[in-house]
Amino acid sequence: MKSKDPKDTNYMFFMKEGKFCIDASKECSCHSRGVFMTTLGRGLNHSRKNFNVKAKKKTLDRNTVILLEATRCINKDEELLFDYGVKTGEDGKQIDWLKQ
Ligand SMILES: C[S@@+](CC[C@H](N)C(=O)[O-])C[C@H]1O[C@@H](n2cnc3c(N)ncnc32)[C@H](O)[C@@H]1O
């Protein structure tokens, strides 16, 4: 599902383990300039009830990274979804699709 308004899109990963957040909207050291905004993880939508991947914090070459791990077998044409782990928008407002 593609968002209609680019201003609605953000790439904050809130991790429960260790209670920290990775801001993936910023350029990182592991992807070259221009490429980092096209990494696949940024394109994943949210589902609280029907997620099929889970974000895991790992250390890779001394960098803290997020790996998306399948929680079950995923069919070839199935959309990858994970639970964003938030219940409201940044401003505290209810967002319908966060309930799905
Ligand atoms: C990390 S981006 C996901 C990729 C995004 N759909 C795109 O096309 O770039 C997060 C944004 O996607 C949209 N989104 C994520 N999950 C959604 C859902 N279940 N229903 C509707 N929009 C969703 C929201 O606009 C959200 O801010």
Automatic annotation (TrEMBL):
<dbReference type="InterPro" id="IPR046341">
    <property type="entry name" value="SET_dom_sf"/>
</dbReference>
<dbReference type="GO" id="GO:0043516">
    <property type="term" value="P:regulation of DNA damage response, signal transduction by p53 class mediator"/>
</dbReference>
<dbReference type="GO" id="GO:0005634">
    <property type="term" value="C:nucleus"/>
</dbReference>
<feature type="domain" description="SET">
    <location>
        <begin position="1"/>
        <end position="85"/>
    </location>
</feature>
<dbReference type="GO" id="GO:0005700">
    <property type="term" value="C:polytene chromosome"/>
</dbReference>
<dbReference type="GO" id="GO:0006357">
    <property type="term" value="P:regulation of transcription by RNA polymerase II"/>
</dbReference>
<protein>
    <recommendedName>
        <fullName>SET domain-containing protein</fullName>
    </recommendedName>
</protein>
<dbReference type="InterPro" id="IPR051760">
    <property type="entry name" value="KMT5A"/>
</dbReference>
<dbReference type="InterPro" id="IPR001214">
    <property type="entry name" value="SET_dom"/>
</dbReference>
<dbReference type="GO" id="GO:0042799">
    <property type="term" value="F:histone H4K20 methyltransferase activity"/>
</dbReference>
<dbReference type="Pfam" id="PF00856">
    <property type="entry name" value="SET"/>
</dbReference>
